[in-house]
Amino acid sequence: MSARRTLLDAVSIRDRLAGTKMPADPLAVDLSPSGGRPPSRLAGLRLDELRPAGVLIPIIDRREALTVLLTERSADLKQHAGQVSFPGGGMEPHDEHILATALRETREEVGIEPALVDVAGFLKTTPTITGYAVTPVVGLVSERFELSIDPVEVDTVFEVPLDFLMDAGNEEHSEREIDGVVYPIVTFHFEGHRIWGATAGIIATLREILVF
Predict the structure, then answer these.
(1) Strands 117-122 and 88-90
(2) Which fold has domain 10-31+42-210?
(3) Which of 60, 63, 144, 162 has the fewest Cβ atoms within 10 Å of its own Cβ atom?
(4) What are the pLDDT digits (tens) for 74-91?
(5) CA distances (Å), 106 to each of 69, 93, 147, in order?
(6) Is residue 179 a contact partner of residue 39, using CB atoms and an 8 Å limit?
């Protein structure tokens, strides 16, 4: 299915994210049930058991169209092996804040230098069943970047047109059972890549802000 035009450009993305702020506390997440019972492995967590993490949503400002850069994780990783995700990872003690985490991890994983990232805004910090509190950072990236992939972390890198991801008609809806509870799952299929889980959830959250 072809994506409908959202008429999004760099200026409109900045405008629609202008009211967002970097969380002062990257562990400030709501672990209480809302909109349904969370998986027991998440409901049983305490805030001090979560590890803060930052991911970058790299929106590449290409001349022909805006695209979103995604990675396919290495099959040898202990967590999220082979899954599609945004570049990012856990916060380290030397990171000044969660933005620094997202930019550092992006540089380490795919080689995009922080100087080429124009931070447009932030999405709500969300807990994951793997024990992370993830803060997505939306960044407009100059197309002048050069990829330098860390093969330990990343298998491949690919780009998806932003319009494709902002079109709800390109979603596939299914269900998954976790801890005995059935949850709705959103999936995108793009040129052989399966985008699902937390990554698809972040995309859906971004669409709620950018497309209205």
Answers:
(1) unpaired
(2) Nucleoside Triphosphate Pyrophosphohydrolase (3.90.79)
(3) 63
(4) 766 555 556 899 999 999
(5) 11, 17, 10
(6) yes
